[in-house]
Amino acid sequence: MRILVVEDDKDLNRQLCEALVEQGYVVDRAFDGEEGHFLGDTEPYDAAILDIGLPEMDGITVLEKWRAEGRLMPVLILTARDRWSDKVSGIDAGADDYVTKPFHVEEVLARIRALIRRASGLASSEIACGPVRLDTKASKASVNGTTLKLTSHEFRLLSYLMHHLGEVVSRTELVEHMYDQDFDRDSNTIEVFVGRLRKKIGVDLIETVRGLGYRMQAPDNAG
């Protein structure tokens, strides 16, 4: 899952990015509104964290432009302002949730998890597919109760597929959501990661849809 962080405070930006990476997310960052708007408008994200008080272009304008351009990713706004009208303006501009500074990073992580779950139509922090369980809160996966030992890329692949159970996901889409903007992307590596993940899961849950990509679903839902 890929997250965009737009925050001009360099220390806070770094703290948020480090915490998100530790949770298994791929993270891109921006330090002003213009750069943030450009990234959000040109790259696919599963969610964005957007400060309201940004240089070059304020966060409300960034958000309004994203929504006007059809960008639908969940957006969590950050504000140091206590006035309720600022929060209302953010929600009216298209924000899905907000956090007022100062805040605990753990709260931001929890709210991002919730926004991504809602966007995927999921209610629980644990996603199940047959014997496979993905704990989004702990960033762990298991099969029949046994924890899977996954590399960061394997975990990102499994997480994305399980957030889109029953859907056909293309190799290009997986690449876009598994790697940040600076990574030398190669869709051929996806086949390698899928093969490794299948072996570690040990259950036939990931289907290759010829010419289209991959689909993960429990055997009872196949066909």
TrEMBL record:
Residues 124-218 bind DNA. The keyword Secreted does not apply. Residues 124-218 form the OmpR/PhoB-type domain. It comes from the Bacteria. The keyword Transcription applies. The modification 4-aspartylphosphate is found at D51. Residues 2-116 form the Response regulatory domain. GO terms for molecular function: phosphorelay response regulator activity; transcription cis-regulatory region binding. Keywords: DNA-binding, Phosphoprotein, Transcription, Transcription regulation, Two-component regulatory system. GO terms for biological process: regulation of DNA-templated transcription. One of its GO terms (cellular component) is protein-DNA complex. This is Two-component system OmpR family response regulator.
